[in-house]
Design goal:
The chain has 333 residues and is α/β, with parallel strands linked by helices. The protein has helices spanning 9-13, 23-34, 40-53, 56-63, 83-91, 95-108, 123-140, 145-174, 245-253, 258-269, 275-282, 286-298, 317-326; strands spanning 2-6, 16-17, 180-183, 186-190, 197-200, 206-211, 218-220, 225-230, 273-274, 302-307, 310-315. The strands form three sheets. The chain has a four-stranded mixed β-sheet.
Length: 333
C-alpha cells in the first residue's frame, strides 16, 4: 500500500530541496489539513480561526481540495512567487487543461462537486473560483506567511547538513521517516488512501518540498515530480498570528543592549554558527551566549536549529532589519 518512486543515477543527481515557499501548493496542503483531524494540539486553534473567516468563494476552492484524494492540478502549481501573480497564472490556465484536470479528478473522486463540471465552460464561475483561491490563502496562510518562510529556511539548513554529511541517501532517508522509506533505488511513500502506484522519474529527478502544514507525505505529479513533507516536525509549534505593532516594538526595544547587539551581529555575520562559536565571537561565556540566543529567538530575531550535538543559529529577516536600523548607534546596556 505505497507510492513507489523509481530512481536512476540521473534522478539521484537531480534530486533537490525547494529553495522557496510555493504559495498555491502550500495552500492545497493547508486546505487538506484544515479538513483533517491531525495534530489537534498544534493545529485546532488555527482551524477554528480559519473556519470562522471562510467566505463563500473560499469554500468553493476548499471543496476541490479534500482531506484525502485527488484535486485538479491547475489549482496548485509548483511555482514560487507572489500570491497575486500565481492566482493570475491560474486564471490564465488553458480551458482544455482545466477540462482534462477536472475529468481526471472526477474519475478518481466519487464525491466530486457537480457544479465543478461547468468550470471549463463558465467564465464567471471560473473567475469566482480564482477569487476563492485568494480568499482561502488570506484565511489559511496570509497571517502566518512570515512564520512559514522562517521555518522553511530552518528546514533547508537541516537538509543541507544532511546532504553534506550523508549525501542524497541521508536526505531521502531522514526527510520524512514516518511516511517515506528509502529502499534503493525506490522511494516508498505510505498513502492515506491505501493506493499502490509505481512512478518512474526517467531522469528528471525529484523535488522535495518542505511544508509547514503538511502532516504526512504528498506526491504531486507533473513536469517535475514533487514530494511534500512536514518541515522540521520536532521544531514546530502552534501557529500564531503576528503581534500588533506596539507590542512587538516594545519587545524589540528591550533587546537593544551592547551584549545582545553583539550576539545578534555575530549570528548575522556567521550564519549557522554554533552556540560555542557564537560565544567565542561575541566574547562571552557559552552559558551567556545560550541565554542571549534564547531571548533573541523568542523575539523572532534569530532561529535556532538543533543538529546532532550542536545548536546552529541564523538571523531572521526581522533581525537583519533591526541591525540595519541600529547601525551607527550606540545603545546602552
Amino acid at each position: 500500500m505505497a507510492y513507489r518512486i523509481h530512481f536512476t543515477l540521473q534522478d539521484l543527481a537531480r534530486t533537490r530541496v525547494a529553495e522557496a515557499p510555493m504559495p498555491l501548493h502550500e495552500l492545497e496542503l493547508a486546505a487538506r489539513t484544515l479538513q483533517s483531524r491531525s495534530q489537534p494540539l498544534r493545529l485546532d486553534a488555527w482551524r477554528r480561526r480559519a473556519r470562522a473567516q471562510l467566505t463563500a468563494p473560499a469554500r468553493m476552492a476548499l471543496a476541490l481540495m479534500p482531506a484525502v484524494g485527488h484535486s485538479p492540478g491547475f489549482l496548485s502549481p509548483i511555482r514560487t512567487g507572489a500570491i497575486e501573480d500565481l492566482v493570475d497564472h491560474v486564471r490564465g490556465t488553458p480551458r482544455a487543461r482545466v477540462r482534462a484536470n477536472l475529468m481526471e479528478t472526477e474519475r478518481r473522486r466519487p464525491s466530486f462537486p457537480a457544479w465543478a463540471r461547468r468550470l471549463a465552460d463558465d467564465a464567471s464561475l471560473f473567475a469566482e473560483l480564482c477569487t476563492g483561491l485568494s480568499h482561502l490563502h488570506a484565511c489559511l496562510l496570509g497571517p502566518y506567511w512570515a512564520q512559514f518562510t522562517e521555518h522553511l529556511s530552518i528546514d533547508r539548513t537541516l537538509r543541507l547538513q544532511q546532504l553534506l554529511t550523508g549525501g542524497v541517501e541521508q536526505l531521502l532517508t531522514q526527510a520524512n521517516p514516518q511516511w517515506m522509506r528509502w529502499n534503493p533505488p525506490v522511494l516508498e511513500i505510505r498513502m492515506m488512501s491505501g493506493a499502490t502506484r509505481d512512478l518512474h522519474l526517467d531522469g528528471q529527478g525529484l523535488l522535495l518540498i518542505p511544508s509547514m502544514l503538511c502532516t504526512r507525505a504528498v506526491v504531486t505529479e507533473g513536469r517535475q515530480v514533487g514530494v511534500s513533507y512536514p518541515a522540521c516536525p520536532d521544531q514546530r509549534r502552534e501557529l500564531t498570528a503576528p503581534a500588533a505593532g506596539p507590542a512587538r516594538s516594545a519587545g524589540l526595544s528591550a533587546l537593544l543592549g551592547r551584549t545582545r547587539t553583539a550576539v545578534l551581529a555575530a549570528v548575522a555575520e556567521h550564519h549557522n554558527c554554533s552556540t560555542k562559536e557564537l560565544a567565542a565571537r561575541a566574547g562571552i561565556a557559552p552559558a551567556s551566549a545560550s541565554e542571549h540566543a534564547s531571548t533573541l529567538r523568542e523575539a523572532g530575531l534569530i532561529t535556532s536549529l538543533r543538529h546532532r550535538n550542536s545548536v546552529l543559529h541564523s538571523p531572521t529577516p526581522l533581525g537583519l532589519a533591526l541591525l540595519d536600523a541600529q547601525q551607527g548607534s550606540a545603545p546602552g546596556e
